[in-house]
Design goal:
globular; 20% strand; alpha+beta; four-stranded antiparallel beta sheet; 132 residues
Length: 132
């Protein structure tokens, strides 16, 4: 049986980069994303972001195209959030995303970078090549 481990750093934002990810909905949104990722056979090592975008460090299985995997996660998470009516306006993701292949060796550093997103943006210490 073939074996593969495909690791990625993925970033995408809210539609028009509006600050829609509040501290109230953030935990639910991330749970929706984790659940869908696992359901598709992937694994999220880290997820975090700011009010207008998120970062994921993720393993995506070789059995599903990357664009389909990300599209399903984005679509499912926004639909579930909108179903709960927790936002003043409908929640939408932008259609674009950034994705970077990473080596297994880089996972711990990218987990740390992702987990510290709010601090990086507050202090201006973001890495240009890893942001939208």
């Amino acid at each position: 049986m073939p074996h593969s481990r495909l690791y990625y750093h993925v970033v995408w934002g809210t539609k028009n980069r509006k600050p829609r990810i509040t501290i109230q909905i953030e935990p639910l949104l991330y749970d929706f994303i984790r659940s869908k990722a696992i359901g598709l056979g992937g694994y999220i090592y880290a997820i975090n972001g700011t009010e207008d975008h998120i970062h994921l460090v993720v393993h995506i299985p070789r059995t599903i195209p990357v664009s389909q995997y990300i599209g399903k996660i984005k679509g499912s998470s926004s639909a579930q959030l909108n179903k709960l009516n927790l936002c003043a306006e409908k929640f939408y993701w932008q259609s674009e995303y950034s994705i970077f292949t990473i080596s297994e060796f880089m996972i711990p550093r990218l987990i740390q970078y992702t987990e510290n997103q709010k601090t990086h943006h507050k202090n201006g210490s973001t890495k240009t090549g890893l942001e939208l």
